[in-house]
Amino acid sequence: MADARRIRQLSSQLVNQIAAGEVVERPASVVKELVENSLDAGARRVEVDIEEGGRRLIRIRDDGHGIHPEDLALALSSHATSKILELHDLERVASLGFRGEALPSIASVSRLSLSSRVRGAPRGWQVQADGREPVEPPRPAAHPEGTTLEVRDLFFNTPARRKFLRTERTEFQHIQELIKRLALSRFDVGFQLRHNGKIVLQVAAGGDVEQRLAELLGRGFVEQSLHLQAEAVGLGLQGWAALPTYSRSQADLQYLYLNGRMIRDRLVNHALRRAYHDVLFKDRHPAYVLYLSVEPEQVDVNVHPTKHEVRFRDSRLVYDFLFRHVHRALEQVAPRASEQQAPAAPRPELPPNPVHPSAAPPPRQSTISFPAEEARLLYGQPSAPAQGGAAETAAAPETPRRDVVRQPHPRPRPEAMDGEVPPLGYALAQLHGIYILAQNARGLVLVDMHAAHERIVYERLKRDMQRDGVQSQPLLVPVKVAVSPAEAQLAEEREAFFTSLGLELGRAGPDLLLVRQVPVLLARADATQLVRDVLSDLQTHGRSDRIQEALNTVLGTMGCHGSVRARRRLTVPEMNALLREMEQTPNSGQCNHGRPTWTELSVDELDGLFLRGQ
Question: Whole-model pTM?
Answer without folding.
Answer: 0.74
